[in-house]
Amino acid sequence: MLMSMIRQQFDMAWKMLLPVAIGLGVVWWLFGREFDAGVLDTLRFDGRAIAGIVLAWVFMLGRDFGLTWRFRVLTDGRLSWAKAVKVCFLCEFTSCVTPTSVGGSALSMVFMHREGIEMGRATTLTMTTLFLDELFFVVSLPVVMLLVPYGELFGFGGGDKAFTVGLQTAFWIIYGVIVAWTLLLFMGIIVRPHAIRAGLVRLFSLGWLCRWRDKADSLGRDMEDTGRDLRHRPLRWWLEACGGTVLSWMSRYLVVNALFFGFAPEADQVIVLARQFVVWVILVVSPTPGGAGISEWLFTTYYGDLLLTGGMALMIALFWRIVSYYIYLVIGACMLPAWFREGLRRKNERKSNAKQL
Fold this sequence. Notes:
This protein has 14 helices and no strands. The protein is an all-alpha fold. Helix 11 (235-263) runs antiparallel to helix 14 (310-356) and helix 13 (294-302) runs antiparallel to helix 14.
C-alpha cells in the first residue's frame, strides 16, 4: 500500500514538473526573442500597478467562488463549502497537469465521490458542469460580436498575417466543434436522451468504431441519468447554476483586464476582455498540460498590438500565468499528499470491514 502511494505521488510529481518545464522553456525562448532591457525601465510598480495585481487576485478568488458555489448548488448542499472548495482546487490542479482538452472537470466525479457523493450521482453532476461550461462558450460569441468589431478580434493591424489567418481558422473550427458538442449534450440530456443513446450505440457499432462502443453506451447512459435529474429542476436552481458558471468564467477573463489596467491603461478594456474569449476557445484543444507554453506564446502574440513592446506583453503574460496557473500547481502539490493518504486510509478501512464480515 505504501509503495502504491509513493508511486502515485511520484507520478503526480513529474506530471506537475512537466508543464512547469514546458512553460518556462517557452518563456525563456520568448525572452530571447522579445525581451528588451528597456522594458524594465517602463515597468513601474506604482499604485496603479499594485492595484491591478491585487484586482487580478481578487478576480481569481471570484472564479474559485463561482465554481465552489456551483458545486454547492449542483449537489443540493451535500458538499459543504470546505469540501466544495477542495473539489474546486483539485479540479483546477488536474487541469494544470493534463492536456486542456481533458481538463479537471472530467475528473470532478472522482473528487466529488471522495467527498461523499455517490459515483452515479457524481457522474451526472460532471455531465451537467460540462454542459454549462460549453453553453457559456456558445452563448458568449454573439455577445462578443455585438460589442467588438470583427477586425479587432481577427484582423488587427500590424500583426503577423499568417498568425491572424491561422488563429481565425483554428478559432472557427474549434468553436464549430463546441457548438456541435453542446447541441449533442442538449439533445442527449434535455430533449431526447434515449434516442441519442441509441444513435451513439448504432454509430459506434460500425466498422473500426466498434472498439469504442462500450464507451459510447456509457456516455449515453450518463446522458439519460443527467436528463432525468435536470428536467425536474426548478428555475431558481438553473439560475444559480448558470450564475456560478458565468461568475467563474467572467472572473477568469477579467484577470487579464486587471493586469492591463495596472500596466497598460491605454489599452481598450472591452477589446482585452473580448480577446480572452478567443484565447480560451483556442486553449480548449491545447495538447500540452494546462496549455503550458502555448498560453504564453499565444498571449504575447495575440495581445502584442495593444502594447508598446513585445517585452511588455511577455511581462503581463507572466503575471497572468502566475495568478491563474502556477498558483494552482502549488496548491495542488500541497493538497495531494493528504488526499492520497485519505484514500489509502479509506481503502484499508474497507478491507478491514470486509474481513470482519
